[in-house]
Design brief:
The protein is of the alpha/beta class. The chain is 23% helix and 28% strand. The chain is built from 10 helices and 26 strands. The radius of gyration is 22 Å and the shape is globular. Bound molecules: flavin-adenine dinucleotide (FAD). Residues 8-14, 33-36, 43-44, 46-47, 88-89, 115-118, 135-136, 162, 254, 257, 287-289, 305-307, 310, 344-346 line the site of flavin-adenine dinucleotide. Flavin-adenine dinucleotide (FAD) binds at residues 8-14, 33-36, 43-44, 46-47, 88-89, 115-118, 135-136, 162, 254, 257, 287-289, 305-307, 310, 344-346.
Length: 415
């Protein structure tokens, strides 16, 4: 049996891959290389609790990494895993089975797990760096938190889940918040028009403003101090007062370190249904960076940026890699199709929006339970997403945990 597996990426996907390799019997050396200085932690609280909870507002990054909810529980099986942190892999030579880090270290491997996730896209506008934020890491959240004081004018560019969560958090902290979004409603693609507008109205009732159908043209300094951000200028010429700008305009996969190996890196790392990277027996990918076919939704490989996917893909990838390393045979030795049900949640103010399956490509959307009348948050509204009369997704906004579980179970039965 080969002796060393290296996992590149020290976050949720990397940790879950290491755990699954051990759970599935890998007893050889196991190293996780992570670009961040911290051990793996949970990202969902970064746009929610970490920004708003007064009881943790004084905690440093090192303290937050161990804080309940932010901390990712590390199973006993990974106690002997070597975590090499604060070090980025600069390049990979897959044919030589070797990696090179930015600080000049060479790492040889027998098996490789790619778990390098995403980084935020940024607006292609220069300047005002001290007042501009994106949110992916704990350090990003701490930097943003320090600027969200009552009365601060905050412009959030991008009305997706992360943008809307940040807007809700900033509003709860007493900031004046405006969301700029190019589509006709926030979260339009994942929720559909009617639910998206309902959630928008919910935000507006709490004090968040929206500029829809608009994008950012440029940034402007203050009249009194041109070096300090004062306004965000939109494509229709409107100037929005801004002390702080949050860019929540999507993400790019971290794949540059894999260049030169002949891989398809056009949107993350292309994998097969075994999470194997382009027929290589000793390379797998997991989490946000992995683009793989899910037979539940057809044969097109896709990336999925939800919290549940790193664990699901790590389970599959670990068994694939161990099999690939322990026998000279090639081919699919696990005939069971890998068809995880994607699920996401988003907490905005006091409402939880939870979705299962795929909602973006629906040709019909139907309210299955409840409605959009006042009271929908406590009673819960359930929306079904259909493609060619098959239900492919469901979203439950508000409501109870039991209601969410019931609809998840129903959708699982469809797949
Ligand atoms: C603010 C925020 C809120 C979220 N909220 C929710 C939510 O409410 N619900 C939900 O379902 N999902 C949510 N998500 C998504 C969820 O957190 C991600 O799906 C999950 O973190 C993906 O894990 P990953 O390990 O695949 O990638 P990542 O978490 O991106 O981790 C990749 C790691 O690899 C490291 N890395 C990159 N390149 C290199 C390199 N060359 N060498 C070494 N290391 C490298 C990175 O520094 C990073 O630590 C949220 C995400 C964010 C950012």
């Amino acid at each position: 049996m080969a002796s060393q597996i290296v996992v590149v990426g020290g976050s949720l996907g990397g940790l879950r891959a290491a755990e699954q390799l051990r759970v599935n019997g890998w007893s050889g050396a196991l190293t996780v290389v992570g670009a961040e200085a911290h051990l793996p932690y949970n990202r969902p609280p970064l746009s929610k609790n970490v920004l708003v909870s007064p009881d943790i507002s004084a905690l440093t990054a090192a303290e937050l990494v161990d804080y309940p909810g932010v901390a990712l529980r590390r199973r006993a099986q990974v106690e002997d895993v070597s975590f090499v942190l604060d070090t980025q892999v600069a390049s990979a030579a897959l044919s030589d089975r070797s990696l090179l880090t930015v600080d000049g270290r060479e790492l040889a491997y027998d098996g490789l797990v790619i778990a390098t996730g995403l980084r935020p896209r940024r607006l292609p506008i220069a300047g005002f760096d001290r007042h501009r934020h994106a949110l992916r890491t704990l350090d990003d959240a701490i930097a943003l938190r320090g600027q969200l004081t009552p009365g601060t004018a905050v412009v959030v560019v991008g009305g997706g889940f992360i943008g809307c969560e940040v807007a809700a958090s900033a509003c709860r902290l007493g900031c004046q918040v405006t969301v700029v979004e190019p589509f006709a409603a926030p979260m339009l693609r994942p929720l559909g028009a009617e639910l998206a507008r309902t959630v928008q109205t919910f935000h507006e009732d709490k004090g968040v403003s929206f500029r829809l159908g608009r994008s950012v043209s440029t940034l402007a300094g203050r009249a009194s101090d041109p070096a300090t951000l004062g306004a965000v200028v939109l494509d229709d010429g409107t100037e929005l007062e801004a002390d702080v700008l949050v860019e929540a305009v999507g993400s790019n996969p971290n794949v540059e370190w894999l260049a030169g190996n002949g891989l398809d890196l056009s949107d993350g790392v292309l994998c097969d249904n075994m999470m194997r990277v382009e027929a290589r027996e000793n390379v797998v990918a997991v989490g946000d960076v992995a683009r793989f076919p899910n037979p539940r939704f057809g044969s097109t490989p896709r990336r999925v940026e939800h919290w549940c996917i790193p664990a699901d893909t790590a389970h599959r990838a670990a068994t694939t890699l161990i099999r690939g390393l322990s026998t000279a045979e090639n081919g699919d030795r696990d005939p069971a199709p890998f068809a995880p049900l994607p699920s996401f949640w988003s907490d905005q103010f006091d409402v939880r929006i939870q979705g299962f399956g795929r909602t973006e490509h629906a040709d019909r959307i139907e309210v299955l339970e409840g409605g959009f009348a006042p009271g929908w948050v406590s009673e819960g509204v359930v929306v079904g997403y259909f493609r060619q009369s098959t239900m492919t997704g469901v979203v439950i906004a508000g409501g109870t945990p039991a209601q969410r579980l019931r609809h998840k179970t129903l959708l699982e039965g469809v797949g």
